[in-house]
Specification:
There is one protein chain. The protein is α/β, with parallel strands linked by helices. It folds into 2 domains: 197 residues, Isopropylmalate Dehydrogenase (3-Layer(aba) Sandwich); 141 residues, Isopropylmalate Dehydrogenase (3-Layer(aba) Sandwich). Helix content is 40%, strand content 18%. The chain is built from 11 helices and 12 strands. The strands form 2 sheets. The protein has a 10-stranded mixed beta sheet with strand order 2-1-3-12-11-4-5-10-8-9, sandwiched between helices. Helix 1 packs across helix 9. The protein is globular and about 55 Å long. The two termini are 28 Å apart. Bound molecules: nicotinamide-adenine-dinucleotide, 3-isopropylmalic acid and manganese (II) ion.
Length: 364
C-alpha cells in the first residue's frame, strides 16, 4: 500500500445504475477531500461492460496489482449488463478483487434507518440491526466444476462447494471478534448441515471450537431455511450472523428488504490481518444492489446505499465519526422525504444525494 500520507481510492462505477450512484458518492468524497481536507486521492478507472465491449478488457493484471500496491480502498458501483449475457467482465472484476485480494469477510450491515422503511408488521427500525458476515472467497463461488455433454440430452453441470478449514475458521472468528469489539452479545451461524453433510460438519465443528473462545457471547446455530423464517418473524433476535458465500448473498437481499430495499444496503469486503506480519490488503466497498438495468439513465436509482457505502469506507480508513455523519444525514433525508421514490420520496438520484451532501458539508 502507498506509504505517502494520502489514501488513494480506486473508483469503479461499473454498469447500469453503478456509475450514476457512484458519481454521487465520489462527489461526497470530494467534499471530504476539498472541504474537510481529508487526505484522499481519487482514481477513476474505466472498467465495466462498456470497456469490455469496446476492447475486450475486463480486469487487467497491471490494474489489479496497482490497486493492491497503491490503494487503501476501492469503491465499486455495480457490475452486470444485459449486453454481456455471460457476465465475463463482472466476474473478472468482482471476483478479481474479492478472491484476488483475499477479501474473505463480506460485512453487510442490515440496519433500518427509519421505522417507515421497515415493511414488517409491528416492527420498527430498532428491531433491525444485524451485521452479516458472509464468507467471500470460497463456497459455490470458486468456479470449480464444469460442463459435460453440453447441449445434449445427457448434459451435466457441476459447481463444486469448496470449504476450507482456514476459510471457515477465519470468517467465524471475524464474526466473534466483531461482536466482542462492538458490544454485541450474540452470534448466529447459519448453514445447511442437515443436508450438506461434509461442509456442514466442518462449519459446525469449527463454530463449536471458536465459540468456546468467546464465552461471554451467546452463540446459536440455525439451519439457513429456519433462519430466513425467524428473520421475517422477528429480526430483533439477531445481532451478528455468520454464514457461507451463497447463503450470505441471499440473506442480505432479504435483509435489504427490512431496510427499505436494495437502495439502502451497504457493504464492505475486508481482509482482517491474521497477524501484524500479514500483508495489508486493499479493502473494497460496494452497495449490496446490482446494476438494476431497468432503472439505468432515468435518475431514479436510490443513491443512499452508495453514500452509506462511502461512509463505511471512511470509517474503515480511520474516520468513524464521518461514517456516523453520513448515516445521520441519510437518515434525516429519509425522515424528511428528501429521497428517491423507492423509499417514499419524490426526488431523483442526483437531487437526493445533493441534499445529503449539502447538509453534511455545512457541518464540516
Ligand atoms: P439488482 O440489485 O440490480 O435489482 C434488484 C431490484 O432492486 C430491482 O427491482 C431494482 O430495481 C432494485 N434496485 C436495485 N438497486 C436499486 C437502487 N439503488 N435504487 C432503487 N432500486 C434499486 O439485482 P438484479 O436485477 O438481480 O441484477 C441486475 C444485474 O446486477 C445482474 O447482472 C446482476 O448479476 C448484477 N449484480 C451485481 C452486483 C454487484 O456488482 N455487486 C450485485 C447484485 C447484482
Ligand atoms: C452481490 C452480488 C454478486 C454476488 C453477484 C453479482 C455475483 O449478488 O454482491 O451480492 O453474488 O456476490
Ligand atoms: Mn447479491
Amino acid at each position: 500500500m502507498a506509504s505517502t500520507g494520502k489514501k488513494k481510492i480506486a473508483i469503479i462505477g461499473g454498469d447500469g445504475i453503478g456509475p450514476s450512484v457512484t458519481q454521487e458518492a465520489v462527489r461526497l468524497l470530494e467534499i471530504y477531500r476539498d472541504r474537510a481536507r481529508l487526505p484522499l486521492e481519487l482514481w477513476e478507472l474505466d472498467l465495466g461492460a462498456d470497456r469490455f465491449l469496446r476492447d475486450g478488457t475486463t480486469f487487467p493484471n497491471q490494474i489489479q496489482i496497482a490497486i493492491q500496491r497503491e490503494c487503501a480502498a476501492v469503491l465499486l458501483g455495480a457490475l452486470g449488463d444485459p449486453r454481456v449475457p455471460g457476465l465475463e467482465h463482472a466476474r473478472d472484476i468482482l471476483f478479481g478483487m474479492r478472491f484476488g485480494y483475499d477479501l474473505y469477510a463480506n460485512v453487510r450491515p442490515v440496519k433500518a434507518l427509519s421505522d417507515r422503511l421497515v415493511p414488517l408488521k409491528d416492527r420498527r427500525a430498532k428491531d433491525v440491526d444485524i451485521v452479516v458476515f458472509r464468507e467471500n472467497t470460497e463456497g459455490l463461488y470458486v468456479g470449480m466444476g464444469g460442463q459435460f455433454k453440453r447441449g445434449t440430452p445427457d448434459e451435466v453441470a457441476i459447481n463444486e462447494d469448496v470449504n476450507t478449514r482456514k476459510g471457515v475458521e477465519r470468517i467465524i472468528r471475524a464474526a466473534f471478534e466483531y461482536a466482542r469489539a462492538h458490544g454485541r452479545t450474540k452470534v448466529t451461524m447459519a448453514d445447511k448441515s442437515n443436508a450438506l453433510r461434509y461442509a456442514g460438519e466442518l462449519w459446525l465443528r469449527v463454530f463449536g471450537e471458536v465459540k468456546a473462545q468467546y464465552p461471554e457471547i451467546i452463540s446459536q446455530h440455525l439451519y439457513v431455511d429456519a433462519l430466513c423464517l425467524l428473520m421475517i418473524q422477528d429480526p430483533s433476535q439477531f445481532q451478528v450472523i455468520v454464514t457461507n458465500n451463497l447463503f450470505g448473498d441471499i440473506i442480505t437481499d432479504l435483509g435489504a428488504a427490512f431496510q427499505g430495499g436494495l437502495g439502502m444496503a451497504a457493504s464492505a469486503n475486508l481482509h482482517y490481518p491474521a497477524s501484524p506480519a500479514d500483508t495489508p490488503r486493499v479493502a473494497m466497498f460496494e452497495p449490496v444492489h446490482g446494476s438494476a438495468p431497468p432503472l439505468t439513465g432515468k435518475d431514479v436509482a436510490n443513491p443512499f446505499a452508495a453514500l452509506l457505502t462511502a461512509g463505511m469506507m471512511l470509517g474503515h480508513l480511520g474516520w468513524p465519526e464521518e461514517e456516523a455523519r453520513v448515516e445521520k444525514w441519510v437518515t434525516t433525508a429519509i425522515d424528511e422525504r428528501m429521497c428517491t421514490v423507492d423509499v417514499g420520496g419524490t426526488l431523483g438520484t442526483r437531487a437526493a444525494a445533493a441534499w445529503v451532501r449539502e447538509k453534511l458539508a455545512a457541518e464540516l
